[in-house]
């Protein structure tokens, strides 16, 4: 009788021509499975979506205070709040210099051709821009 490759054996099965050994799953692996499953369940229950995370760091308050933080994060690399010029002009007295409307305009559209990025392109939403405006209004 020809040797039967698929003959069940005590020591291995043959799956698609590959011999698969029968052994017990080692104890340490079982504990790893249990720990991973537990972690996955914990993660699935407690994880927040990326959007929620961004919301968490986005100040919802439209205040000059919040605006100052946004300024320090998004603008201070190019602007001082004094009259000193960095990459862009110092913003002391900017409201009086530009007037409300032009300031609003710059805060929404920037001046991309002149090196001032449009703040929405920096990832700032309307509330953040409103807060920024309140803060810039305080710069005398
Ligand atoms: C990559 C550098 C850069 C960043 C970041 C930047 N700016 Fe500017 N900004 C400039 C430059 C350069 C100008 C000058 C543009 C010009 O010559 O008209 C400018 C101009 C301005 C002006 C007009 C000032 C004036 O006297 O005409 C305002 C207001 C302003 N920026 C506010 C902001 C705010 C608020 C932020 C943060 C959201 C910001 N900028 C981020 C470079 C930057």
Automatic annotation (TrEMBL):
Segments spanning the bilayer are 28-45
Presence of the UniProt keyword Cytoplasm in the record? no
Occurrences of domain Cytochrome c (ranges): 62-140
Q: Which UniProt keywords apply?
A: Electron transport, Heme, Iron, Membrane, Metal-binding, Transmembrane, Transmembrane helix, Transport
Source organism, top-level taxon: Bacteria
**What is the designated name of this protein?**
C-type cytochrome
């Amino acid at each position: 009788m020809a040797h039967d490759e698929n003959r069940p054996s005590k020591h291995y099965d043959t799956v698609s021509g590959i011999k698969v050994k029968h052994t017990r799953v080692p104890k340490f692996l079982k504990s790893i499975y249990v720990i991973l499953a537990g972690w996955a369940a914990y993660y699935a229950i407690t994880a927040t979506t990326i959007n929620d995370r961004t919301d968490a760091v986005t100040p919802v308050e439209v205040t000059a205070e919040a605006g100052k933080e946004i300024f320090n994060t998004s603008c201070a690399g190019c602007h001082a709040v004094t009259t000193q010029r960095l990459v862009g002009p110092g913003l002391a007295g900017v409201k009086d210099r530009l007037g409300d409307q032009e300031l609003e305009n710059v805060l929404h559209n920037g001046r991309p051709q002149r090196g001032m990025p449009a703040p929405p392109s920096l990832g700032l939403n309307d509330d953040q821009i409103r807060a920024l405006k309140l803060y810039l209004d305080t710069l005398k």
